[in-house]
Amino acid sequence: MLSSIYTAAYVISDPLRHVRVLVSGVSDVSRAVEGADYVTGEDDEAPLELRHLKYVKVALPSTPRFEASHAFKYVPVTNVVDPKTVVLGGTFDHLHQGHLILLSMAALLAEEKLICGVYDFANTPQRLLKKANHEFMESLDARIKAVEEFLRLFKPNLQYRIEGILDDFGPTRNEPDMQVIVASGETEQGCLAVNKLRKENGLCELDIYLIGVVANPELEGKGSENFADKISSSFLRRYLSEQAEKTPK
Q1: Closest to 19 measured CA to CA, from 90, 110, 32
Q2: 64 and 26 in contact (C-beta within 8 Å)?
Q3: ∠ at Cα 227 (90, 219), nearest 5°?
Q4: Per the database record, which ranges form the Cytidyltransferase-like domain (predicted)?
Q5: Rounded CA gap, 89 and 35, in Å?
Q6: Most buried of 17, 172, 203, 204, CB within 10 angstroms?
Q7: 67-85 per-residue burial string, b: 16 or more CB within 10 A, e: under 16
């Protein structure tokens, strides 16, 4: 349901439009009263026209269904039930539909605490320079703020720790109190590397939840399966670059 709504809400004419899917009984829906539009029912189909929506409220089962599909994969290690602490990380540049699904699923899984690492390029400027249209990358503070604002709206009763990280491991390398890592589907190898390092450091390995990438509807049916052709931060930076070129000097 989350994925179908976010995919439908993608507006080609304005990929940066902010649409937030909130869950009845989980999210702080009261904060989304102004300009809100609602869709209810866990089995309802997402509306095809979401061009003018800002907030969408849905009713999901009290226990989220994580069924194996092209959009979801579970890699059990300890088979933990109701994990107290869930961790995830990423760049989270220009928070988009893929990020929102990832953050939402991580928050739904966590019983008590969610730790989110946001990549800080301070020690690796060369890594930033390799990114296409890197001049349109948001600042670390802006990225952390966007992640925190969404999470506190989506599931306000969790404890959150959202912080900059200087490498791909962040707090997973030395903190024992975490049970699950959530990541996008193409970063499975990174999750396995996290578990390898945790095992070497005498820590418990983490169960892995992999969430599929949201396809770019503009390219639907055109045979392109490259990640660069999905809704992504690189796609949005390219969009911003193209818009800047069209702006009269």
Answers
A1: 32
A2: no
A3: 130
A4: 87-212
A5: 31
A6: 172
A7: eeeebbbeeebeeeeebeb
Query: CA-to-CA distance for 13 and 193, rounded, in angstroms?
Result: 39
d(Cα 177, Cα 135) in Å, to the nearest integer?
37
pLDDT-derived band of residue 219, with 50, 70 and 90 as boundaries? very low
pLDDT digits (tens, 9 = 90+) for 69-88: 445 788 888 888 889 999 99
- pLDDT, tens only, 142-176: 999 999 999 999 999 999 999 999 999 999 999 99
* DSSP H helical ranges for the chain: 2-9, 97-109, 125-129, 140-154, 188-200, 233-246
Please state which CATH number belongs to domain 63-246: 3.40.50.620
SS3 content of the chain, % helix, strand, coil (to 5): 35, 20, 45
pLDDT digits (tens, 9 = 90+) for 117-146: 999 999 999 999 999 999 999 999 999 999
- pTM for the complete prediction? 0.81
Token pair in block for residue 187: 């970063």
- What type of residue sits at position 72? F
- Rg of the chain over Cα atoms, rounded to whole angstroms, equals 18
CA end-to-end distance (rounded Å), the chain: 43
Using alpha carbons, select from 103, 89, 182, 85 the residue that is nearest to residue 150.
103
